[in-house]
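Hey all, quick one. A colleague (J.T.) asked me to put the inosine 5'-triphosphate job into the tracker so the inputs and the structure tokens live in one place instead of scattered across chat threads. No bug as far as I know, just bookkeeping. Sequence used:
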Amino acid sequence: MRLRFITGNKNKVREAGERLAELGYEVVQDNMKPPEVQADTLEEVALFSAKWVVERSQEPFFLEDAGFFVDYLKGFPGVYSAYVFDTIGYGGILRLMRCKTERSARFEAVIAYWDGREFHTFKGVVKGTVSRNPRGENGFGYDPIFIPEGEERTFAEMSASEKNAISHRGRAIEKMVRWLKKKET
Ligand code: ITT
């Protein structure tokens, strides 16, 4: 079965595509560029974009909004992750965290799926810590500074499939697939 993924981010397509292929689905990227509203939660951001898409095309699709939440910074950059990445980058986050021992953080991803009639949301979370220095070449975004729980390597030091097996995105996708499979039977 084919799933339309509305995103401009090729890295997301690659990761979601690999995870979904393992689960028996094919991903097709659609770069419609829906606007992203500034809101308090990833759910609100995802649903705002998803509603904009449905006003233009009613075919089933999913999109995803993700964020990096640092506890010491009271959840910042969170819903501002894309803007912060494009401005101060992960180097800016490391500077804000210099000499801090409280380094817990998490990634969250919220998928909004439109089945042609209504929306369904699926959330994935991965907890971990902010590294002292950036490490690794794989992945994208904040991956070089995030060490998932139970690991010593950053996401950027892991292979795509290792990241996918435990990541916020991988987990949100698994939930969506579980729901899709149930719907099919
Ligand atoms: P869309 O077109 O799908 O919206 P985007 O790149 O704007 O793509 P988001 O707003 O969901 O994506 O993501 C916010 C930022 O969080 C993004 O710019 C990345 O830098 C970062 N990010 C998202 N997922 C990540 C991941 O798996 N690993 C590292 N950083 C990630």
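Adding what we noticed when we looked at it: The longest strand covers residues 119-130. The helical segments are 10-22, 42-54, 81-87, 89-96, 160-166, 168-184.
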